[in-house]
Design brief:
This protein is of the alpha/beta class. It folds into two domains: 4-166, Rossmann fold (3-Layer(aba) Sandwich); 171-292, N-(1-d-carboxylethyl)-l-norvaline Dehydrogenase, domain 2 (Orthogonal Bundle). The protein has 14 helices and eight strands.
Length: 299
């Protein structure tokens, strides 16, 4: 039974995920590029903050990486003067939970295997609210026996959906976000058309949620973050743009024609250029509003 988990990256998502591990009874070693974040986590939640990535690896049986990009994951694993490979013991399981590039993750898995460990990928869906309650959807790709060994750790953070070989979880996550974004954008356009016609966008949202137009955005984003004008769902535009670029890369690598996906991707590229990578992803509704010449409101 795994007792000690290293967790690299205690940001918006990583913090509540690591907190769920502490709550589940694991000894958790945390690391973050911002040392104060790791220290604050220990003070507020528990666990330990080793002085280096090497020390974290030396004292952890399972290591979770929850980082912005595959470039950063690779740097944490093997780059610079301090990295996980320097202290990783044979038999260590690395769970790469970032929304990374599948082909890069597959290459990293080979490097981990050469050192006697195993890497699986497990990106998540559900956002900060479900990270806090330990109810994330975790898309896991990798060796079946390793997934079984890591199951107590994964189950403490959410529900496991096995997707296939290593890298398949990240491919699924990127494609999921493509579908989610498409649903958001078409829904916002519908609200704009309806408002121009004379329909109340809030009433429209209720009808969509009772009819076949329902999706995650109509249920959990339109009223909460767009019609309210709060735009604070907690997921950055730049991260969404990265996920969609990964989905498009998978499409190119598999020679799959995807014209609608390309249009959705272009909308996000344009929204990021207009509002910046740090803007909340729900602000992509503002791009639709600019194109329509109208602003959505309740009532």
């Amino acid at each position: 039974m795994t007792k000690t988990v290293g967790f690299v990256g205690v940001g918006n998502m990583g913090w509540p995920m690591a907190a769920c591990l502490v709550k589940a009874g694991f000894t958790v070693n945390v690391n973050d590029s911002r040392r104060e974040m790791a220290d604050n986590f220990v003070q507020q939640v528990g666990g330990f903050a080793p002085d280096s990535l090497r020390q974290l690896a030396e004292t952890s049986e399972v290591i979770v990486t929850m980082l912005p990009t595959s470039v950063i994951v690779e740097r944490v694993l093997s780059g610079g003067d301090d990295n996980l490979f320097a202290g990783m013991k044979p038999g260590t399981v690395i769970i790469e939970m970032s929304s990374g590039v599948p082909s890069v993750t597959q290459r990293l898995a080979e490097q981990v295997a050469a050192l006697g460990g195993t890497l699986i990928d497990g990106p998540v869906s559900g956002g900060v609210p479900r990270a806090k309650t330990g109810q994330l959807a975790i898309m896991v790709g990798g060796d079946e026996a390793t997934i079984d060994r890591a199951m107590p750790v994964l189950s403490a953070m959410g529900s496991v959906l096995k997707t296939g070989g290593v890298g398949s979880g990240q491919a699924m996550k990127a494609l999921n976000n493509m579908v989610s974004t498409g649903g958001f954008l078409i829904g916002i356009e519908a609200l704009l058309i309806g408002q121009r016609f004379g329909l109340d966008p809030a009433v429209m949202t209720d009808v969509l949620n009772a009819a076949t137009g329902m999706n995650n955005s109509t249920q959990k984003k339109f009223k909460q973050f767009v019609l309210s004008r709060k735009f604070d769902a907690g997921f950055a535009m730049g991260l969404l743009a990265k996920d969609l670029s990964i989905a498009m890369q998978v499409g190119r690598e598999t020679a799959t024609s995807a014209p609608l996906s390309a249009l959705v991707n272009e909308m996000i590229v344009s929204a990021q250029a207009k509002f910046g990578p740090n803007a909340d992803h729900t602000e992509m509704a503002k791009l639709c509003e600019l194109l329509a010449g109208s602003e959505l409101g309740e009532g």
